[in-house]
Structures are given as structure tokens and as C-alpha cells.
């Protein structure tokens, strides 16, 4: 039988970016330790709707750690206390009976708040649109073996391609830098033969756009690596800076 917990949730509530916000306290009893934190919010919202109160807004989609939609701070830590885990994969078994969990949105100028725990991460989309792609006209799809790629090279490129764009790296950086996100996108393309054309210009363009979007510079405290649910190494940030030279 699953362990049952009682939790206190301190949740940041703010109806819109032009209104003031505050933490609201909610007491929940008899929660199964097998519930994810998002499922707990689902239960809370059912209660709030039944009481004719406004439900808590939070981003979510696949709930399988793939899409990168979900994300907020749990007790000040992006995605919560469990390493290499997205928020939707954070289960109550990580907490103790009687714990208080403080939930608040990503805090970054480049991620303006929309409502409650939801922020606008369209700045990531604009970064990709600025140059995070290959635009070479290759005609029809080539044969799969036309370009030989070594196993180590492919594995390294795939490591950076696993970035899901959740924004935890930005939320955890003291300067709200998007360096790890941009570095992952550049390293994914820059390590493969298909990404060699315009490689240097791509790196320069994305770094300039990162600054224009209001992201700060790398703080070098490696918190981005610590909270990344896909464990992408911060070493790629140094790689990114060398690319633009």
C-alpha cells in the first residue's frame, strides 16, 4: 500500500503580469506518495473549481519528460530536488509527511510571467528562428549512408540534441543566462557534417540574439548543468564561445 502524506503548498498566485502577486497557502491531506507533483496540482485544481475559485495555472503537456513544457521552482530549485528529472516526473516519494513545498515560476526578464506558474518562453523560439537550424538546400533526401558519421561523433551530437528547452538553466543562473540552451543547439548542429556550412556565423548570430532577448551572460557557477533534466554538460558553453571566434 502506498505511503500517504500531508503537504502544505505555498504557491505563487498572480493573475497577470501587470498585477501584483503573492504566495497562497494550501493544505492537502492523504496524498499518495505515488502521485507526481503535477497530479497533486490537478487534485488541488479540482478542489478549487468545486469551490468556485480560480485554479492554479501551470504548463504541462506530455508528462513524460520529453516536451519541456512543464517547469517551475520547487523550494527554490528548478524541477525540484531530484537530479536529472523533469517536473512532471517528480513524485511525492521524494518528500516527507508534513513538508512545505514552495512553488514559484521561473524568474527571468526574458521569461515574462503570464499567470501563476506560467511564463512566456517565446524568447527560446526566437533564438532558434534566428539561426538554430540548417538552411542548406540539399535537394531530395540523400541515402542514409552517404555521409559517414562516427559512433562517438554521433553520440556526442545526440547528447546535446536531448535539450528539451524547458528553461531550467535560465531560471537557475544568477544572470538568467541562456548559454547552456544555445550551446546545446549549436553543438548539436556543429558536430555533424550537415551543420558545417555557416557554422561560425550561426554561433555568432545566436549569441548576439541571446543578448538582444535580455538573457544575461554566463555566471560560471554551473547551476545550469546541475538542474538540467537531460544532464547536458556546461563544458559546451566554452565550446560555444570558441565557435564564434
Can you offer a commentary on this structure?
There is one protein chain. The chain has 245 residues and is of the alpha+beta class. It has two domains: 4-104, Ubiquitin-like (UB roll) (Roll); 121-136 and 148-243, Fumarate Reductase Iron-sulfur Protein, Chain B, domain 2, CATH 1.10.1060. It is built from eight helices and seven strands, in the order ββαβββββααααααα. It has helices at 37-50, 122-131, 151-161, 168-172, 179-190, 199-212, 223-227, 235-243, and strands spanning 4-13, 22-32, 73-74, 77-78, 100-104, 113-115, 118-119. It has a five-stranded mixed β-sheet. Strands 6-7 form a two-stranded antiparallel ribbon. It is elongated and about 60 Å long.
Topology order in helix (H) and strand (E) letters: EEHEEEEEHHHHHHH
Using the 3D structure, state the CATH architecture of the largest domain: Orthogonal Bundle
Determine and state the CATH class of the largest domain. Mainly Alpha
Helix content: 25-40%
Could you tell me how far the N terminus lies from the C terminus, measured between alpha carbons in angstroms?
59 Å
Our count of helices gives: 8
* Oligomeric state of this protein: single chain
Strands, count: 7
The CATH topology of the largest domain is given as Fumarate Reductase Iron-sulfur Protein, Chain B, domain 2
Strands side by side in the biggest sheet: 2-1-5-3-4
Radius of gyration: 20 Å
Amino acid at each position: 500500500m502506498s505511503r500517504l502524506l500531508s503537504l502544505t503548498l505555498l504557491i505563487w498566485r498572480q493573475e497577470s503580469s501587470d498585477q501584483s502577486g503573492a504566495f497562497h497557502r494550501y493544505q492537502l491531506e492523504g496524498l499518495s506518495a505515488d502521485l507526481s507533483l503535477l497530479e497533486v496540482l490537478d487534485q488541488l485544481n479540482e478542489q478549487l473549481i468545486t469551490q468556485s475559485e480560480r485554479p492554479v495555472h501551470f504548463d504541462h503537456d506530455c508528462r513524460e519528460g520529453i516536451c519541456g513544457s512543464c517547469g517551475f521552482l520547487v523550494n527554490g530549485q528548478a524541477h525540484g530536488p531530484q537530479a536529472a528529472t523533469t517536473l512532471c516526473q517528480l513524485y511525492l516519494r521524494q518528500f516527507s509527511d508534513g513538508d512545505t513545498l514552495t512553488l514559484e515560476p521561473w524568474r527571468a526578464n526574458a521569461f515574462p510571467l503570464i499567470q501563476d506558474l506560467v511564463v512566456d518562453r517565446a524568447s527560446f523560439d526566437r533564438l532558434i528562428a534566428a539561426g538554430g537550424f540548417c538552411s542548406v538546400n540539399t535537394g531530395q533526401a540523400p541515402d542514409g549512408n552517404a555521409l559517414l558519421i562516427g559512433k562517438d561523433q554521433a553520440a556526442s551530437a545526440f547528447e546535446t540534441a536531448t535539450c528539451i528547452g524547458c528553461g531550467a538553466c535560465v531560471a537557475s543562473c544568477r544572470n538568467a543566462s541562456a548559454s547552456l540552451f544555445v550551446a546545446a543547439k549549436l553543438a548539436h548542429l556543429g558536430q555533424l557534417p550537415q551543420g558545417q556550412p555557416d557554422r561560425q556565423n550561426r554561433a555568432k548570430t545566436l549569441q548576439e540574439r541571446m543578448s538582444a532577448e535580455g538573457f544575461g551572460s554566463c555566471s560560471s557557477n554551473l547551476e545550469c548543468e546541475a538542474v538540467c533534466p537531460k544532464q547536458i554538460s556546461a563544458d559546451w558553453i566554452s565550446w560555444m564561445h570558441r565557435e564564434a571566434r
